[in-house]
Every structure is written in structure tokens, then in C-alpha cells.
Write a structure and sequence with these properties.
This protein is of the alpha/beta class. The protein is 42% helix and 18% strand. The C terminus is likely disordered. The structure holds adenosine-5'-diphosphate (ADP) and magnesium ion (MG).
Length: 697
């Protein structure tokens, strides 16, 4: 019944069926059933004519017709009826079907009028309203909250208007009433206080009261998110079954020696906890898939390094992949510095590694002389064989696609354990979705002694004052970044901005007292590297840069982050940039420079930055401001094609739905008990096209 083609529904027919399919993607009864209203009109209330204002949505009135007449010629020909109540009068206007309308417009008896008011030549009027005898209307009053369905211009033009849609739904629900089955077992309905499926659907289309409506909405959102979570959890389970991995049972001499003799500081409790979680995973004969989320500066690198030592202790190689050459190089030097003294060999592979060096690398990799290989995309592109890759660490992964990552571990016979590190805290709903198949560790603590970065907002006209402040900081031995929005590295205008900025900054901070460096994506990588090195060593005091420095760059002596045209950056970028300072002992500053023409949204972003340093809070705000579609390319992933739930709002429901799915799979991993058959069947139906059940069940 649910699969019945929509043309068989009373009131549809083949022509309208085509339109509905083309415009709204509706082909079956079931498709129609889950086309939910956009909004509802409150039909429990009557307005007085004096209360009408033309920006209201549809409203209802009660009044009497005092006169009816036809005015105008040809195209402007219209029927106008004057409606009065005790507070005033308005005109009701029709442009066609005069004969039909006239029949309804009986004078001197109370009528119910329903429609949307507008103004015409300064007078309020209502075009093509619904009209009904008040007495008739009272005997069968409309649904109190009147649904308004999504529609398109084409449908409207062809007469498939809301009135018709409402009729179709009334028909549909009447026909399907006894066909709609409950999906969830009673136990689950009780535990999560879910409304029965049938009632929820009826209430969603024709709510009897607001309270009941919210319960219906909750139920349907829960159901949608439950199946989303069930899919993710099934995928995870499936993955673990297929991908056995190497069990690193030894935590041995390299690890402990480093810990005792070479670790330059004490680990934070959060770092210790996350390391423990990783070590636990590595010890299992299942491939690890763990995401470490830690705010900028929380010390993820050392966690990665120590995990790689566990691999080494078990006779395996590791690789560390970073999104930019600057970052890969920096990681390479950091690892060299820490591991060199222990005699552990690590090497670097980037796009600019010479052929000769590659040859040597290849030898080192295949023979196992090199224990750790750091690199960029080149790691994936170069046909390089590890002797035995046991652990792949991916830093700032949001820059790598899933497919790219898969390439990396295809090189090995068995997949290596995978550790993904990200400084982009993502909202919980998204984490549960995009990373729902991963295990997540959170480093929620910064190393001791860090002072929060002071963040201020300044307009262009404060530039002199700001430069004075920079000079003052430099006089105290500090360094500064000045960042320009070069969002698309190929955009010429942006590039010009940067170069002009660089010139004017070089004038404002002249040699020999000051030395200004520059870093952007168009530079040769050897130049980039040299600039970065000069800054790291304190030879330049100011680094003018684009967002190349956004990710991961670590210079603890830098204490000022000045962001030019800050209104052109997104929240997570601003947060990343700010994270480049505040890494040393000195008080650090983030200055957000903007023009004085700010959009509301840009202003809100700047405000958020001033208010909080918490990456998670910033991520939640970002989601609210931008909506989930934009975030992290999730639109393409298709996983977020949700009909009713909203990832920026339904965090709590998502949590409940995930919990329910986890519990269910714990009790009944194969969904084989009789109670869970409807869930199983629904699940199969949802995913018939995507996943073969045999692989899962
Ligand atoms: P991120 O998490 O942003 O990648 P990093 O790993 O680059 O952070 O670490 C930021 C800085 O903090 C580095 O200079 C690193 O040496 C230092 N650091 C990391 N852990 C600690 C710690 N437990 N105590 C003190 N400093 C630390
Ligand atoms: Mg980092």
C-alpha cells in the first residue's frame, strides 16, 4: 500500500502525478506521507479588521458583505466585495471566476473569511480569500493548526496549491490509516517516551494542539536519527569484522626510554588519558580508527609521536601525513629533534623532494631503516612501499578526503591502525554523524601555564595605534603574525591585497630595526621553508602571511596575531589563526581588524571570538550561523539528507537516538529477535541500495 504510485490517490491522476514527481520528487504514497509541512497557520483564532496588518501570514476574519461590484476593463477587470465588522472594513478582491464567487458572497449574513492581506493603493485588501458561511463553518471547523506544504512556482501555477495539498493529505491519511505499523518495540516507546507512529504522522500533518504536535515532531525526528545512527554503528561493526589489524602487544623500550629521558615536559592529564585510549586500541587485533580532537595548542603532536613509538616497539613503521608542506616540514624537524638523540630515523617526503632523495627514501622505507615517514599528499601519490606500515597518523584531517586516506593504507597488505588528529572541534551532532564510525578521544585541557589570548576588535582607523602596540611587543622580544584573507590562493585580487599589505607593513616597520617576512601559497617551497625557519629562529619579527599558517604552525615566541579583514574569515578559521599565538609563557593578543561596514553575520562572528576561547562552543556557534550543509563538505556526503531532523538544533534528540541504537545492538547485534523485525525490515528498506545486508547481518 505504501508503495502505491501516487497517481492512484484520489485527486491526483497521471498528470498531477508527473508534476509532483518532477517538482517534489514524490512518486509513491510513502513519499507523500513524509513530505512534512513547512509551517502551520493558527486557525483557532479570529482577527478583527482593525488588527490586520499586511505583513501577517494568512488570517481569519468574521464579517458581513455590504456591497459587491465588478470594476475595470479586460485585464484589470475584478470583482470587489466590501467586508465589514464592528471595527472597520476591507475589500475582498477576485480576478477570475466571478460567477462562482458571487454565489458565496451573500449579503448581511456572517461569513468566515480566510486569506492573506496585502495593500493596494494604500488600502488593505485580501485577494482570492476562502469564504464560507459562518454557520456551516462552525459545524465543521477546520483543523486548528493548518499545515502549509513545501511547493514550487510551477505547481502553484498549475493549480496544485496548498488547498489541494491539504485535501490530498486528508485523503492519504484516511486511506493509509490502518496500514501504518509501529516500528519500535513497546519497550523502546516507553523508555524514550515516543508517540505511536501512526498518531505521530497524523499529528505532524494535522496537529490537534501545539503540545501534541511537539511530541509528534520529536517522535519522527527520533526515528530519522535512530536509523541514521543505526547505519553508522552497523558500518562500524562491519568494518571491525572485516578489518582485523595488527595487535601491538608490547609497549617497550623506545616508548619508556622516551618517556623517562627525552620528554621535554610533563604530559597533561588529558594527554595521558588519550594515550591510554590509543594504547588500548593498538593492543587489539582490530584496526584502530581513532579521532583525536584537541583544541589548537593542546599538544596533539606529542601524543602522535608516542603512539608511533608503540608501533616501533612492535617492529612497525609509521607515517605522519600533514596537509601542507610548511606543516609537514615543521613536524619533521620536531620529530628529528626529539627522536634523533634516540637514534630513531625519520624522514620527510613532500612534493619538492628531489628524485635522488626519493630514491634513497624508497630504499630506506623498503629496507625498514626509516622508522617514521613524515609528509604531505606526496605520501599517497608516490609509489612507495613501506616494509611494514603499522600506524598512519593523519594531522588536521579535514583537508583530506576519505578516498585519499584509503589510498594511503592500500599500500600495505593489512591495513595499518589509523590515528586522525584534528584541531577543528566539531559540534556533537556532526561528530556523532560524520565521525560516528570512529572512536573519539578528546584532549580537553591545555598544558599548564597558558594564558588565554586577549582578543579585541578594531576598525581600520585604529591602525596607527595597533602598529604602535606591535612595536611595543617587538621591543619586548616578541613576534607577530599579520594575516590576510587569501582564501582561494588563485584569486588575483586577494594576492594583490597581500602584496600591498606587505609593502605598507615594510614601510611602517622599516629596516634595520625591523625585519618582516612573507609566506603564501604561491611561493616555492624552499622559499617557504626558509621564511618559516627565519621566523622560528626569531630572525624576522613579523610574518605577513595568508592562511597557509592557519594549520598547526608552532612558534611559541609569537604573541600577536593581527587578522586583516577579519570579517572575511569563517569562525573556525579565526579560531585556528588565534591558536597560533598564546603558545608560550607571555600574554598573547589577537586583534581582529575589520572595515566599519560589517554584515550582521560577520559582526556576530567577531563577537563570538571575543566572548569565548572554547573551540567546541565556537563550533556550535558556527553551525548555528552557517547551518550544517556548509560544514566540512558534508553536503556531498549525502549522509545529512535529513527530512525532519536538524543537526544544528537537535543535539539532544541525536544523543538519545544514538544511545537507543547502541543499546539495541548490544542486546541484539544481528537484529534477529522477533521484537526487532520491523526495525530490521525498515533498516533494510532504507539501505537496500547502499549496503548489502549480507555483509552486515
Ligand atoms: P596542537 O595540538 O595544536 O597540534 P602541538 O602539539 O603543536 O599542539 O603543541 C603545542 C605546543 O605545546 C608545542 O610547543 C608543544 O611542544 C607544547 N606542549 C605539548 N604538550 C605539552 C605539555 N604537556 N606541557 C607543556 N607543553 C606542551
Ligand atoms: Mg598540530
Amino acid at each position: 500500500m505504501l508503495n502505491t504510485p501516487i497517481e492512484y490517490l484520489k485527486g491526483v491522476g497521471p498528470q498531477r502525478a508527473d508534476w509532483l514527481r518532477d517538482e517534489l520528487g514524490i512518486s509513491t504514497y510513502e513519499d507523500l506521507l513524509s513530505l512534512y509541512p513547512n509551517r502551520y497557520i493558527d486557525r483557532s483564532r479570529f482577527y478583527k479588521i482593525a488588527e490586520i496588518n499586511p505583513i501577517q501570514a494568512e488570517i481569519q476574519l468574521v464579517g458581513q458583505i455590504t456591497s459587491v461590484g465588478i470594476f475595470g476593463q479586460k485585464k484589470t477587470k475584478r470583482l470587489v466585495a466590501r467586508l465589514e465588522d464592528e471595527t472597520g472594513s476591507i475589500d475582498l478582491v477576485w480576478f477570475k471566476k466571478f460567477d462562482v464567487v458571487r454565489v458565496f458572497l451573500k449579503k448581511d449574513i456572517p461569513l468566515m473569511i480566510f486569506g492573506r492581506a496585502n495593500t493596494f493603493q494604500g488600502r488593505i485588501q485580501m485577494a482570492h480569500p476562502e469564504v464560507e458561511n459562518l454557520e456551516d463553518y462552525r459545524t465543521k471547523p477546520p483543523i486548528p493548526l493548518h499545515p502549509v506544504y513545501p511547493t514550487t512556482e510551477k505547481l502553484q501555477k498549475r493549480g496544485v496549491n496548498n488547498r489541494l495539498m491539504v485535501k490530498l493529505f486528508q485523503e492519504l491519511i484516511e486511506e493509509l490509516k490502518d496500514q501504518i505499523e509501529e516500528i519500535f518495540p513497546q519497550e523502546m516507546l516507553d523508555e524514550y517516551q515516543l508517540m505511536d507512529k501512526k498518531e505521530a504522522l497524523v499529528q505532524m500533518h494535522f496537529p490537534s494542539a501545539l503540545e501534541v504536535f511537539s511530541k509528534a515532531q520529536y517522535r519522527l525526528k527520533f526515528e530519522e536519527l535512530f536509523f541514521l545512527q543505526l547505519t553508522i554503528l552497523m558500518r562500524k561493526k562491519d568494518h571491525q569484522k572485516v578489518w582485523t589489524g595488527y595487535a601491538f602487544t608490547r609497549v617497550g623500550k623506545h616508548f619508556y626510554r622516551f618517556y623517562r629521558e627525552f620528554l621535554p615536559f610533563f604530559l597533561t592529564d588529558a594527554q595521558k588519558r588519550v594515550l591510554k585510549e590509543i594504547r588500548h586500541d593498538l593492543g587489539q587485533p582490530i584496526q584502530m580508527n581513532r579521532l583525536v580532537q584537541g583544541d589548537v595548542g593542546s599538544g596533539k603532536t606529542i601524543v602522535a609521536l608516542m603512539s608511533m613509538l608503540v608501533a616501533l616497539d612492535n617492529g612497525f613503521q609509521s607515517c605522519l601525513m600533514a596537509p601542507t608542506e610548511v606543516l609537514a616540514t615543521q613536524h619533521h624537524y620536531a620529530l628529528r629533534k626529539l627522536l634523533g638523540p634516540m637514534g630513531i630515523q625519520s624522514s620527510l617526503l613532500t612534493g619538492s623532494t628531489t628524485q635522488l632523495a626519493r630514491k634513497q627514501l624508497r630504499y630506506g622505507m623498503e629496507s625498514g631503516v626509516i622508522s617514521i615517514l613524515v609528509g604531505t599528499h606526496a605520501l599517497i601519490e608516490e609509489p612507495m612501499h613501506f616494509q611494514n606500515l603499522g600506524l598512519a597518523v593523519i594531522d588536521e584531517q579535514h583537508r583530506f578526503g576519505v578516498a585519499q586516506r584509503a589510498k594511503l593504507w592500500k599500500k600495505n597488505k593489512k591495513p595499518p591502525h589509523v590515528l586522525i588528529m584534528t584541531a577543528t572541534p566539531i559540534p556533537r551532532t556532526l561528530a556523532m554523524t560524520i565521525y560516528g564510525h570512529l572512536d573519539i578521544s578528546v584532549i580537553n585541557e591545555l598544558p599548564a601555564g597558558r594564558k588565554p589570548v586577549k582578543t579585541v576588535h578594531r576598525y581600520e582607523n585604529a591602525r596607527l595605534e595597533i602598529f604602535g602596540f606591535l612595536k611595543n611587543q617587538i621591543a619586548q622580544g616578541r613576534q607577530a603574525y599579520i594575516v590576510y584573507p587569501l582564501i582561494e590562493e588563485s584569486e588575483k585580487i586577494n594576492y594583490q591585497d597581500l602584496m600591498e599589505g606587505y609593502e605598507s607593513i615594510s614601510r611602517a616597520f622599516p629596516l634595520p630595526e625591523y625585519r618582516v617576512g612573507i609566506l603564501h601559497g604561491r611561493m616555492k617551497s624552499s622559499d617557504k621553508e626558509a621564511e618559516m625557519r627565519r621566523f622560528t629562529r626569531g630572525e624576522t619579527q613579523i610574518m605577513v602571511a595568508t592562511t597557509v599558517i592557519e594549520v598547526g604552525v608552532d612558534v611559541p615566541n609569537a604573541s600577536v596575531m593581527l587578522i586583516e579583514s577579519a570579517e572575511r574569515f569563517g569562525l573556525s578559521q579565526l579560531h585556528q589563526l588565534r591558536g597560533r599565538v598564546g603558545r608560550g609563557a607571555a600574554q598573547s593578543y589577537c586583534i581582529l581588524m575589520t572595515s566599519d561596514k560589517l554584515s550582521d553575520e560577520a559582526y556576530k562572528r567577531i563577537q563570538v571570538m571575543g566572548r569565548t576561547h572554547d573551540g567546541f562552543e565556537i563550533a556550535e556557534e558556527d553551525l548555528k550561523l552557517r547551518g550544517p550543509g556548509d560544514l566540512m563538505g558534508t553536503r556531498q556526503s549525502g549522509i545529512l539528507d535529513l527530512r525532519i531532523a536538524d543537526l544544528s538544533k537537535d543535539v539532544q534528540i541525536m544523543g538519545q537516538a544514538r544511545q537507543a541504537a547502541v543499546k539495541l545492538l548490544e542486546k541484539d547485534p544481528e537484529l534477529s529477535t522477533p521484537d526487532n523485525q520491523t526495525i530490521r525490515n525498515t533498516f533494510i528498506k532504507y539501505h537496500q541500495k547502499k549496503i548489502a545486508w549480507s555483509k552486515i547481518g
